[in-house]
Design a protein that fits this description.
170 residues; alpha/beta; L,D-transpeptidase catalytic domain-like; eight-stranded mixed β-sheet; two-stranded parallel ribbon; 3 helices; LD-transpeptidase; cell shape; cell wall biogenesis/degradation; peptidoglycan synthesis; EC 2.-.-.-
């Protein structure tokens, strides 16, 4: 019994898949949101794989900055605030939800999601989430597992520089 407990403690503290461990490790999937450029970068295998145009908060405080963890993913997410079913054309969350644990939330408050307002991409317009075009969030959704780290910043550094600082690129 003590061997099992020791294993579980060791696994949860050093495992690269455990959300509170030393993630990201070089090569792990990693997402960077830069509010200054309204862009989202997907890093995998130590390389910036994709950069997407995004929309972020109406003001700098609405989209929180820091390192977060993806905790929830949903296809055709339900929009609780206005009771709009997932997949409905008037659903502002679009076709995918990638929720993360910003400000001690459970991944259902802040997220990277699609939009039914593609004209809004590139603007400072959201209530705090990160909006992508539906086709972009669908690609990202397929490549981002639960536990992926999301770093949100507002700086002029390149995605490569930020990823190196955060150990996502060797």
């Amino acid at each position: 019994m003590n061997l099992l407990v020791s294993f579980l403690i060791a696994f949860t503290t050093i495992s690269p898949v455990w959300p509170i461990g030393p993630n990201p490790l070089p090569g792990d999937p990693f997402v960077i949101v830069n509010k200054q450029t309204n862009e989202v970068a997907f890093i995998d295998d130590g390389i910036v794989q994709e950069v997407y145009k995004a929309a972020t908060g109406k003001n700098a405080e609405l989209t929180p900055e820091g390192m977060f963890t993806v905790t929830v993913k949903a296809i055709n997410p339900y929009y609780r605030k206005k009771d709009i079913q997932g997949g409905a054309p008037n659903n502002p969350l679009g076709t995918r939800w990638i929720g993360f644990d910003a400000l001690d939330t459970d991944g259902r408050t802040y997220g990277i999601h699609g939009t039914n307002q593609p004209w809004s991409i590139g603007l400072y317009i959201s209530e705090g989430c990160i909006r992508l075009n539906n086709e972009d969030v669908e690609k990202l959704f397929d490549n981002v597992p639960i536990g992926t780290k999301v770093f949100i910043t507002n700086q002029s550094s390149s995605f490569e520089q930020i990823a190196k600082e955060k150990r996502a690129i060797p």
